[in-house]
Request: fold
Amino acid sequence: MLGRNVPDVTLKTRVRDEAVEGPNPFRWQDVQTGDLFKGKRVVVFSLPGAFTPTCSTEQCPAFERFYDDFRDAGVDEVYCVSVNDAFVMFQWGKHLGLKNVKLLPDGSADFTRRMGMLIRKDHLGFGERSWRYAMVVDDGVVSAWFEEPGINDAGLDDDPYSESAPEPVLDWVKANAA
Reply:
C-alpha cells in the first residue's frame, strides 16, 4: 500500500443548497476522491458501517476528539470512508454530532474495492463492507498504512480495532512531517 496512489473515484454526495425548495434542501454532487486528496496531507479511516457498534461508539468519535491534534500536526483534513450511501452517512454524522471529521459515502464500494479492502460481512447480514483501516495520504499517495489484522470474508474476526485507532496514526504523523 505504501507509495501507492489512492483511487480516483466518484463519490455520490448530498450538499445543502438553499436554492432547492421544500423540506429537503439538498442536491446531489459528485465528488472526486482525487480532488479531495490533491495537494494536501489527509488522514483517511475506513470502517465496516455507519451506526454499527465499534464504529459509532469508538472509532469515529475518537477521530473527532483527536481532530485538532491532527490539524496541529499538519493534517489538512480527516475523512471517514464507509460503504454506505450519502443519506445514511448524513444521518450518522448528525447522530454522532460530528463537527470536523468529514464523512465520505462509498455507497457503490468503488473506493473500498480499489483499495483492496472490500470484504463480505454476510455472517452479520451486512453484505459487502470495508475492512477496518486508516492511512495518511500525502498529495494522493499513501504515506502510512494502519490495517487491522486478520482480514477475511468468513466472519472469523471479533471486529478488531487497535491498529486503525487515531493514536497510532497521530503518533506517525507527529514523527513524520509532511
In short: The beta strands are 10-16, 26-32, 41-47, 77-82, 102-105, 118-120, 128-130, 133-138, 141-147.
